[in-house]
Amino acid sequence: MYEQASHSLLNEILVELKPEIGNFRLRHFYTRLGANFYAIHSLFHLLYGDRPDLKGKMVKLVETLALRYIERSPHLRRSDLEREKNYNWFMSQKWVGMALYCDRFAGDLKGLRAKLPYLQELGVNMLHIMPILDCPPDNSDGGYAVRNFRRIDPRFGTTADVEALAATLKKRDMLLVLDVVVNHTSNEHEWAQRARKGEQKYQDYYFVFEDREIPDIYEEAMPEIFPVTSPGNFTWNEEMGKWVMTVFNSYQWDLNYRNPAVLIEMIDIILFWANKGADILRLDAVAFLWKKMGSACQNEREAHLLLQLMKDCCQVTAPGVLFIAEAIVSPGEIAKYFGEDAINAKECEIAYNASLMALLWDAVATKNANLLNRGVKNLPDKLERATWLNYVRCHDDIGLGFDDNDARLSGYDPFLHRRFLIDYFTGKFPGSPARGLPFGDNPKTGDTRISGSLASLVGLETALEHQNEDAIEAAIKTIVLLHSMILSFGGIPLLYYGDALGMLNSLEYLADPFKRHDNRWVHRSHFDWNKAEKRSQSGTVEQRIFSALKKLIALRKETTPFADLDNRQLLATENPNLLVFSRTDTQNSRNRVLVAGNFNVEAQALHIGTPRSHGFFQQDAMKDLCSGMRIVSENDTVIIPPLSFYWLTD
Ligand code: OTU
């Protein structure tokens, strides 16, 4: 859009830029800046329009974008141009991700390079390395309390190692995902240290208060994120003699985005890692970016404006780089992190599908797909050029973040149903084989989340202890069933390291005084390479899970209807144990797949009336992609075995 005021401002800024910036070949940069400048200026004005130094800050922002562009290497600039042309590249079914801890999986970054063949064997081609930046050794929150945003923790390696890894990944056609922890810093970050020493400039980077007056007002409406380990949202700092906002752990200081300097610093950091070769940046805890007294300080409109600004700026300097929104919020709020009223994502192109994750766990516990169907039906529409990150579990606790109203419509009291789920997954519910641990138990709200490895949560640990082959089989089937859903749903599936081998809970964290209070470490264990070896020994649990997932991943990549192009339709069935949806190739509507999952421990009948009205089962036999078997309907019914699924094609 051409807008007079912003273009005249742009011209003024261009005159003020440092002379060396003019000496570089900046053709693409200026085209993109021109295209995005109106949006950048409007957003900046909305957020910071009342500040006298607005223009100075705009100069600084544009300068940052230009300097990082000048640094961007030719091969990354080439990739930007290619991705601009082929802008839907990330919606393809060819991508399959995995999240892992560099040290726990492979020692360090060099070790990780050596382990890439394992990932490729499984079919993983998008690698999310959990945070690897410099953190204090003790209070690190698993890497989410960053001390230096531009330095790799020496235990993992160096920035050069990241660049080398990015180059290797590129050659293997694999994507690199890195974290940028945008919401807070470690209390040992230089900004926090200088704030503590009394420097006003850096106290203004955070929320710092003389006394409890303002903090108390904030507390009235702010929920607690880690009520057990870090109650409250403010921490007293002795050295400063002041209170500081710490929404997460007491050593994680929340950044104050009311200060434009903070935003510019963070955009600089985002572009720094874009320039090191990250294809995708995971922006941590984005729902929390804007704090407002009297509100829960989550999902505020300004948080969205900040993300739009970050995206617009990234598009000027590194347009090939995508953002993942990590916003573990209610189903209705999550989709807003793609950006509202748009076709293309104007905030983050990818968002964690925490709603699907929670709904899948509900189906595991209830052994039916009642709430799952309702939740999937009510999932907010995503934008055309945006996609979900579908996952069964991640490194965090599992929150039961489904919609209360959906729970009611499914016949549950939401509160009691959540209690049941927590009892089920912590093994308290009679007959439950799950071995989860309650996380973040909040007696004030009754809220609890769940820790535990996938295998232990679905009963594999208990089954192995009892040497109960039927129970082992059921656990394996559940693991495969859950993955069959995230692989076919539409979006990028994100596996969690260890899950493809059925790794169990690990209590090693209890021996570490800095981890023992945070039971999320029960499912963040060291990757057991001896166990991994067993993936090639026929009949082992590891082999049964690994080979099944490997096959599903390979099939997903070949199956064009699985690309995420708004081509999923949920099909209503009379059988509440089943989730049934169709996926259609947008280029060729005859190329389609009917996905049907049975979450019950008994075989279930799928009456084919509804699928038939959608063009499926016109012949009396279909092919299951996974087994290659012909599936014949009898009496208008297809039987789906217990805890199993079909990917059916004509
Ligand atoms: C994120 O978590 C990270 O994934 C956690 O590992 C960090 O501890 C946390 O941020 C702080 O950096 O903020 O938007 O249910 O889902 O803490 C969601 C709790 C987050 C997590 C929540 C999450």
Poorly predicted ranges (pLDDT <50, ≥5 residues)? none
Q: Which outline best applies?
A: globular
> Could you report the average pLDDT, rounded to the nearest whole number?
96
What structural class should be given to the helix and strand makeup?
alpha/beta
Number of strands: 25
Helix tally equals 24
The helix content, as a percent range, equals: 25-40%
N-to-C CA distance: 47 Å
Can you describe what's shown?
The chain is of the alpha/beta class and 650 residues long. Among the domains are: 1-135 and 146-181 and 258-352, Glycosidases (TIM Barrel); 184-254, Oligo-1,6-glucosidase, domain 2 (Alpha-Beta Complex); 567-649, Golgi alpha-mannosidase II (Immunoglobulin-like), CATH 2.60.40.1180. It is 39% helix and 16% strand. It contains 24 helices and 25 strands. The strands form seven sheets. It has an eight-stranded parallel barrel, surrounded by four helices. It has a six-stranded antiparallel sheet with strand order 18-19-20-25-22-23. Strand 8 and strand 9 form a beta hairpin. The relative contact order is 0.09. The mean pLDDT is 96. The structure holds 3-O-alpha-D-glucopyranosyl-D-fructose. 3-O-alpha-D-glucopyranosyl-D-fructose (OTU) binds at residues 141-142, 144, 181, 225, 248, 284-285, 287, 326-328, 396-397, 399, 449.
